[in-house]
From TrEMBL:
The keyword Flavoprotein applies. It holds the Pfam family Flavodoxin_1. Residues 3-160 form the Flavodoxin-like domain. It comes from Pleomorphomonas diazotrophica. This is Flavodoxin. The keyword Flavoprotein applies. InterPro entries: Flavdoxin-like (IPR001094), Flavodoxin (IPR050619), Flavodoxin/NO_synth (IPR008254), Flavodoxin_CS (IPR001226), Flavodoxin_lc (IPR010086), Flavoprotein-like_sf (IPR029039). The lineage of its organism: Bacteria, Pseudomonadati, Pseudomonadota, Alphaproteobacteria, Hyphomicrobiales.
Length: 160
């Protein structure tokens, strides 16, 4: 099975998480600033990750990256999402970028796998929550770094 992990990162936390996730999935890792439509298409499982910036925005490279995503044919493709955020400082837009990626891939016909429980996080609002669950894996390196290894291990086995 071919797995591609495509990520964007400003200060390196999402890059580090992408590396750990890619190691567990034996995946090729690609920075969204270098990604082409073929990188989205040429795999059996596509894993996309972004931190949230501004007030609920995508990471800067992802802002143009979603246009590349929009050129790709994702119909029927299994896609898993992960997002980094800070629930203490930004409780009203916690990991919102993952919700934006979710809407973008669903619009392209993808099948999103790897929803997770919101239990263990404290926040007020997030567009990454649908029907009571996160649409992917949420990591909070600012407040809950100690929980991330376990979360990554559980989630990568879930999506495999
Ligand atoms: C200016 C700024 C705005 C942020 N806005 C949000 C936000 O709206 N929601 C959120 O969950 N996290 C927010 N964060 C936290 C980052 O998403 C978090 O620190 C993340 O781990 C950074 O990932 P990176 O190191 O890959 O860039 C913000 C951080 C900064 C510096």
């Amino acid at each position: 099975m071919t797995v591609h992990v495509i990520y964007g990162s400003d200060s390196g936390r999402t890059r580090a998480a992408a590396g750990k996730i890619a190691a567990k999935l034996d995946a090729k890792i690609i920075n969204i600033s270098d990604a082409t439509a073929a990188d989205f298409e040429g795999c059996d499982l596509l894993v996309l990750g972004s931190p949230t910036y501004g007030e609920g925005d995508l990471q800067a490279d992802w802002e143009s990256g979603v246009d590349v995503l929009g050129e790709a044919d994702l119909s029927g493709k299994r896609v898993a999402l992960f997002g980094l955020g800070d629930q203490s400082t930004y409780p009203d837009s916690f990991a919102d970028a993952m919700g934006t990626l979710y809407d973008a891939v669903v619009a392209k016909g993808a099948e999103v796998v790897g929803f997770t429980d919101t239990k263990g996080y404290e926040f007020e609002g997030s567009t990454a929550v649908r029907d009571g669950q996160f649409v992917g894996l949420v990591l909070d390196q600012d407040n809950q770094a100690g929980k991330s290894e376990k979360r990554i291990a559980a989630w990568t086995s879930q999506i495999l």
